[in-house]
Amino acid sequence: MTEATRTKLEAAARYASALSGDAPIVGNDKDQIVFVGSGSVKLVAHASAGREQVVAFQFAGDLVSVPATRAHAYSLSALDDCELISFPADEFFKLVQQEEGIILEVLKCSLVALANCREKAITLGRKTAQERLASFLVSMAERGGTPVDRGVELHLPMSRSDMGDSLGLTIETVSRQLSELRASGLLITPSRSKFLLLDLAGLQARAGHIRAAA
Amino acid sequence: MTEATRTKLEAAARYASALSGDAPIVGNDKDQIVFVGSGSVKLVAHASAGREQVVAFQFAGDLVSVPATRAHAYSLSALDDCELISFPADEFFKLVQQEEGIILEVLKCSLVALANCREKAITLGRKTAQERLASFLVSMAERGGTPVDRGVELHLPMSRSDMGDSLGLTIETVSRQLSELRASGLLITPSRSKFLLLDLAGLQARAGHIRAAA
DNA sequence: CGGCTAATTGACGGGACTCAAAACAAGTGG
DNA sequence: CCACTTGTTTTGAGTCCCGTCAATTAGCCG
After folding, report:
1. Which residue range forms the structural domain that includes residue B172?
2. Where's the HTH crp-type domain (chains A, B) (predicted)?
3. Are residues A118 and A134 in the same domain?
4. DSSP H/E element including A129
5. B108 CB-near residues (< 8 Å, 6+ apart)
6. How many CB atoms lie within 10 A of CB A21?
7. Are B14 and B119 in the same domain?
8. Is the domain of B77 the same as that of B90?
9. Are both B152 and B56 inside the same structural domain?
10. Does residue B167 share a domain with residue B87?
11. How many angstroms separate the CA atoms of A146 and B112, rounded?
12. Co-location of A149 and A203 in the same domain
């Protein structure tokens, strides 16, 4: 990146530090691009009657596109303490346009987000509660699990409520299905946010993936 | 676009004509970029047990990203007779990378697709059958409706089954909810694929959008 | 007109939601 | 260090919406 571009980007940038639970970025009439410097966030869409859908969880290093409000309103909330840098999308594009390579990276980022969102659409549209939870755990294990001797360990910063809002389920259903997975010996939960996946293959088999049935 | 780039793109391109019902593009181990020259297509994701989720409908002029097979398999099917041009994603990016402007257009395309997919996630995760159908009709009206004296006219190339697979509902539920909207005087269906939306505002009110409740 | 597929309508059952209560984790102050 | 408080998670009972199965009707093309 040239020095000139960097300077201009810094001028357009808005820096925000947020504590857990804060909503540092609220959708307005313009699309925004947000870089997650540290911590983790949820992108939430708001429908009528207070219903919320978590559209994506994003972690340190991710780039998030926050759409302008149209049929639904969007906002970004902190799951952790985190640091964010946001730009108005149009300015951001104008500035990085000349920087060969950068814009390609942004495009790839956006295509990954698109692929993730499509996976979510399958989950929400065609899967049972148990399959949704299993899918979720497998995907989280792929994104940020640490292999230990007995399986894969996960630290999930989001609450059961966030999981429900992400999977299109209620808290109670999330909890019930977790209990069932526990009873099946697929995982144990040493604490609220810590998960130890004992049988990743077993979870994958319950996730309704194409490979499991074929 | 330079002549050199055009020549290279044409070399990488695969042209396909497809009749209604064909699946001219089947997901493989590489991401693909497909341009819809004419006609309309559905992007379908396959889960276990033969369940299908329509991830997006795309029409003439649209650019579609078909992900490689991972947890789920994707394919593109023709709703109409249509003509498609496809590229392996990595080659496509390499070629248009130098062309300033082009790649920005592709990025914007991808962000629109992302926003659409997120809207779909809300619909699938948090809406009732009736809200889903109303949302679908409103969104289709915005994308390709023709205003007439009594309301907005729609020609939908997809079957009830496709609508169901897109909205996470069964054919029967789609049909039942359509009947209810008809009974409420919100629309009439002169033929199978023709819809006349008599009261767009009424449909929007039933779509569960944020504005309706606030 | 006749045959075929798509769409609609009906009856019934099940999975997830709702409401409600109990159990549990995680701080807080004594 | 422990009792207390508070909010989260888990568990339970009942209900409803949508899915399943089945039959009828309507649209479409030869």
Report:
1. 127-213
2. 127-201
3. no
4. helix A129-144
5. A93
6. 11
7. yes
8. yes
9. no
10. no
11. 34
12. yes
Which residue in the set A56, A67, A126 is minimally distant from B47, CB to CB? Answer: A126
Choose one of A106, A123, A140: the last residue of a domain.
A123
Q: Which residue of B has its CA nearest to A169?
A: B125
Tokens of A97: 């346009």
- Find the CB nearest B213 among A48, A74, A103: A48
Give me the tens of pLDDT residue by residue for chain A, a chain 214 residues long: 788 888 999 999 999 999 999 999 999 999 999 999 999 999 999 999 999 999 999 999 999 999 999 999 999 999 999 999 999 999 999 999 878 789 999 999 999 999 999 999 999 999 999 999 999 999 999 999 999 999 999 999 999 999 999 999 999 999 999 999 999 999 999 999 999 999 999 999 999 998 754 4
* Residues lining strand C, beta carbon within 7 angstroms: A 128-130, 168-170, 172-173, 191-193; B 159-161, 171-172, 174-176, 178-179, 189, 192
User: How many CB atoms are located within 10 Å of the residue B2 CB?
Assistant: 9
Select the residue of A31, A56, A126 nearest B51 (Cβ to Cβ): A126
User: Are B172 and B90 members of one domain?
Assistant: no
**Most A-contacting residue of B28, B48, B211 (CB-CB within 10 A), to test interface:** B48
Rounded to the nearest angstrom, the minimum Cα separation between A162 and chain B is: 13
Contact flag A114-B114 (C-beta cutoff 8 Å): yes
Whether B139 and B89 share a structural domain: no
Domain total of chain B: 2
B71 and A207 within 8 Å at the Cβ level: the answer is yes
Which residues of chain A does B46 touch, with a Cβ-Cβ cutoff of 8 Å?
210
